[in-house]
Amino acid sequence: MTRFASPAHDERVTSRVGRWLGIAFAVCFLTGLLSHGIQHPPSWFTWPSSPVWLYRVTQGLHVISGIAAIPLLLAKLWSVYPKLFERPLVRSALHALERGSILVLSGAAFFELITGLFNVAQNYLWGFYFPTAHYAVAWIAIGSILVHVAVKLPVIRRALAPPGVDADRRRFLRTTWLATGVAVVATAGATVPLLRRVSVLAWRSTVDLPVNRTAAAAAIEVPADWHLEVVDGEDVHRFTLDQLNALPQATEELPIACVEGWSASAVWGGVRVAELLRQCGIAPGVDVRVSSLEKGGLYSTSTLPGTHTGDRRTLLALRVADQPLTPDHGYPCRVIAPTRPGVLQTKWVTRLEVL
Ligand SMILES: Nc1nc2c(c(=O)[nH]1)N[C@H]1C(S)=C(S)[C@@H](COP(=O)(O)O)O[C@H]1N2
Ligand SMILES: [Mo]
């Protein structure tokens, strides 16, 4: 077909780009499953509290592999689009099925990458609840990728076999790798400290500790008689802020790793949750529901699993970087636990309840 003479339209190119796209999607899918599991744990699921940076890395990989997949997907579609013009449109039932599955695959892949991109940019333009849709479509995407790879296996084998690609095709591939590298380096500084200075498109300046939701946006008003309630069945223990400050204090360096793909480490000071529970006669290692002063927000409550209440590094933070918490960072107190999604690091805490 001379109409599509570009060296990019060649199964050897398609397969090479496809291999990396497949790897990017696999990493993105698995790290996404983990993040979903931590936020909506089925009964058999436990997430460790060590090492402290684990979630920071898995969620960083999730967003980085998603970003990398965008230029790879565009290059791959560019490589195969002449096939759209192949005639006859449908050769057999099997052929129709195969073409249909590619339509589903492209649609699902685009949906995931675009909703993900808008999500990290904190732009929720749509009416649906992002995590549910993003999670459901991920299964469609990964399923259709598996079908696609299985169907194409003979072609992939042939295309990846020696002697490799000639100079023209290598040029297209090199441009693709370069575009992918630039996209990653330009954004990964949101979570990789070493890249902070070069990541011109990173969606969060991480020089300081970013604020995801401000106290004003969450309509937080701390009542004059604020106190923390620790509820254990019928027992209710109350602590004023002065009483919390009078308990044994600890500091821990722990990251906030937002599901939106930025992360930042800070030195937090406050009361160990395990210590606070002991003060109330409760053995650490129990699941605890955390509630905030926020009314109605999606992240106004969270559950601290036993692995985290039993970990001495889990703090009810009263300070960050040696200063009392600002309203935006959760004054009067907030949860900060190791290797936990930012959405679960509840701010403006007013109540802990043993489950
Ligand atoms: N009550 C409450 N806590 C919250 C949130 C919220 O909306 N409401 N946002 C969470 C999210 S998504 C993140 S990433 C972290 C960010 O903490 P920071 O603003 O102190 O950096 O707070 C978490 N705690
Ligand atoms: Mo977040």
Automatic annotation (TrEMBL):
Signal peptide: none annotated. Residues 223-354 form the Oxidoreductase molybdopterin-binding domain. Pfam families: Oxidored_molyb. It comes from the Bacteria. Coiled coil: none annotated. InterPro entries: OxRdtase_Mopterin-bd_dom, OxRdtase_Mopterin-bd_sf. The chain crosses the membrane at residues 20-39, 59-81, 102-121, 133-151, 172-195. SUPFAM superfamilies: Oxidoreductase molybdopterin-binding domain (SSF56524). CDD domains: SO_family_Moco (cd00321). Keywords: Membrane, Transmembrane, Transmembrane helix. PANTHER family: BLL0505 PROTEIN, PROTEIN-METHIONINE-SULFOXIDE REDUCTASE. This is Putative conserved transmembrane protein. It comes from Actinokineospora spheciospongiae.
